[in-house]
Amino acid sequence: MTWTRDLSMLFATLFGFWVLLNGSLAADVLLVGLITALIITLLFRNSLAVVSELRMTPRALMTTLGYVFFFARELVKSNLNLARIVLSPALPLNPGIVKVRTRLKSRMGRLLLANSITLTPGTLTVDIDGEWLYIHWVTVDSADIEVATAAIVSGFEEYLEVMYG
Amino acid sequence: MIKRAIALLLLLAVGALFASLLAGYVPDSELNQTARYYAERTAGDIGAANIVTAIVVTYRGLDTLGEVTVLFITAAIVGLVLAQGQPALPHTPRQLRPPVGELLTTGSRMLTPLILLLGVYVFVNGHLTPGGGFQGGAIIASGMLLLLLADPLKHFSHQLISVLESLSGLLFVGIGVLGVLFASGFLDNRLLPIGNLGELFSAGVIPVIYSLIGLKVGAEFSSMLANLSEIDKTDKTEET
Amino acid sequence: MAEFFVSESLIYLAAILIGLAFLLALFRFLKGPSTADRVVAFDVLTIIGITAIALLALLEGRGIYLDVALVYALLSFLGVIVIARYLERGL
Amino acid sequence: MMASLLSVIGGVLLVAGAAFLLLGGLGLVRMPDVFNRIQAGTKATTLGTLLSLAGIACLQPAWTLKLALIGLFILFTNPLSSQVLARAAHRAGADKSPLTAVDLLAKDQLADDPKGDRA
Amino acid sequence: MISLAQMAMATGFILILIGFYGALTQRNLLRMIVAFSIADAGVNIVIVAIGHMRGRTAPIIDAAVPVADAVARVIDPVPQALVLTAIVIGVGVTALMLAYALKLHERKRTLDIARFTELKW
Amino acid sequence: MMSMSPLITGITVLLCVTMLGAAVVAIRAKAMPIAILAAGLVSLVASILFLVLASPDVAMTEAAIGSGLTTFLFFFVLARIRAAGHDDAEMDADSPDGGKNDGVRT
């Protein structure tokens, strides 16, 4: 049953993307979009959409909303942090690559986690190997795995775990 | 050294020519006769909002047919040149190559369908937006490239690509011939009603022709990329 | 008319800032030192280019220019990935 | 009145976005090594572009959909390409700044294959 | 006052010259192809600049440019159609050159143009 | 929409200077990937210039084909030549150690 859900999710994503692109709900646009999305869905059956592994429970949807706000706040915070570093004449850096672990199993969830980490204060995902993430950190507080995980990953993981599992 | 001096001398001559051209250039303030005709008549005659598209597909449609043919020949020659002669280069064994990485794999599986859809959007809306078959074809080829990068063992189905290419080429010419039979000339777009300006189903057969061009160009560029990348036929037989 | 003037001068200011950002990234592109540095600069230049295109669309009042920005966004991504795979010898 | 207020907000957002882009450029020039440059580049340009697009959407409300689409696309692709590039730079053995405190990735890779010729 | 078109045209001409200089003086085949592609871009810029007219906009009819104003507001579309073709053919030619360069390198294990002496007279 | 012609002129000057600089880098760079990247930058900036010259069709074509596909083709070919174990592609034909001090050991 899961593959029908995946396919319909992919189809819905593609169709939504098409409508957004065209910015119109005219009958001809919808018709062409329907055909195109159907063909691409059938050609790329094993592809993923952003929402394909998202749990469709009300709680997950609420968490998604919370995640978006949390992410936006973190993004602004990270830029202010960056501004502080770049604009100060001394360039207060203590860079290094640390290792953290994640509990997320779903691929989409891990991708979103890595992307979120890259866009949040002072961290950049360099590599991912199973459950281990290697993070470049501009100001390394501690190279210890547990401490780094608590500082970098757990904020997003709480949301993403509910959303994707 | 003497070669460099000759090159500089030649460049100096060409540069002087360019400078005189530039000095004598007077910008037009009015459209010339041809451009005026196109600007005035496109909306009424062709029904396409994008005048450049109208020129490329209908007014000078025969040139575009030639262009697509040239591109086809180029792709074929690239394939032929690379396939003939000695066996291919000794490749870096796959085991020594770094693996693709989970992030890129997941990301490409998520993005490839969207990129293909963007390509389709670009060529279907060729008569309304700055897009068109060539741009859309290039975007589709880029999507295939992403697929190829993320999963180097994945083979392009050369057969599917060549079938798609020939089929869209045939249909392109077929629509042109139908224009002779049922409208007023080869590649005439008034085979279908020209509709209202600015709608998706307007400008007669222009969206259809541009979609066919897009598919054909996308297939050609994809096969060019597949031929020039390392993942070619000889490699595959080694793998399997 | 006063508000119009305000937003117009704000657009001017934004364009000048974007130009400065472009110059800084260009400096990094020209200076290097390594290929990876130049690729980063290339990426940043492309993304500044997207903003510049959106700004041009605003200045000219033509919404259709935004399609070009969409293609640009796609290209910046693909170009960086191709070069990255080249650098790690995975191409 | 409403429209003019919106246009002023749009202008301010646009300038803020441009300022973040400038910050990204500055970070690109000032940071000492590739990884820090990627950090500065990707964060500042993502937020800067998003803010600029939002500002333009305020100035021209009819374009909101397409601008939102461009923003979404950038939000997904930009960090992804940065990560791929960072990984490639690390594998290719890019010079790290002397300030670098720890590099657990290099350590783990050395442990994986002792000859250390992965790059 | 120099117009946009003249500025762009001058840049295009200089790009053509830079590209030709590179193509004539480089000895590495790939570098010659890079130089050719720069000259290609220069030619395209020159042709588009010829079609540009001050104060006019793109030849696409939409809400911003209604049909009635088209003649007074749009620029010359013909050079754009030409350049569209030229760019597509340009990448085809580049791909062809690259394929030959690859094949030549396979034969001789070098990209140095001076080593290819079979047809030298 | 507004009287923005000085701004547009400034943008054009910036774009033209960038293109010339990138073209010179493309001709003179020691390492081959940098030359290709610089040529890609020329195309990319050219496509913004096309947009300034009111030709969005050409701008999109140049962005997708001139800057995108051409660069990809170059890198594919470069990777194949490098895979043949011959580092000729990396350096200048007439300077034996060109491209060696490149930071990233490609």
Summarize the structure.
The complex is a heterohexamer of chains A (165), B (240), C (91), D (119), E (121) and F (106). Chain B is mainly alpha-helical.
Describe the structure.
The complex is a heterohexamer of chains A (165), B (240), C (91), D (119), E (121) and F (106). Chain B has 240 residues and is mostly helical. Helices cover 68% and strands 0% of the residues of chain B. Chain B contains 9 helices and no strands. Chain B has helices spanning 2-23, 33-46, 51-59, 61-83, 102-124, 133-150, 158-182, 206-228, 233-239. Chain C is built from 3 helices and no strands. The model of chain C has no long low-confidence stretch (mean pLDDT 84). The termini of chain C are far apart. Chain C has one domain. In chain C, helix 1 packs antiparallel against helix 2 (35-60) and helix 2 packs antiparallel against helix 3 (66-87). Chain C is flat and about 55 Å long. With 121 residues, chain E is mainly α. Helices cover 66% and strands 0% of the residues of chain E. Chain E has helices at 4-25, 29-51, 70-73, 78-108. By secondary structure, chain F is mostly helical. Chain F has one domain. Chain F has helices at residues 5-28, 32-52, 56-83. Chain F is elongated. The chains are: A mainly alpha (165), B mainly alpha (240), C mainly alpha (91), D mainly alpha (119), E mainly alpha (121), F mainly alpha (106). Chains in contact: A-B, A-D, B-C, B-D, B-E, B-F, C-D, C-E, C-F, D-F, E-F. The D-F interface holds D 89, 92-95, 119 and F 103-106.
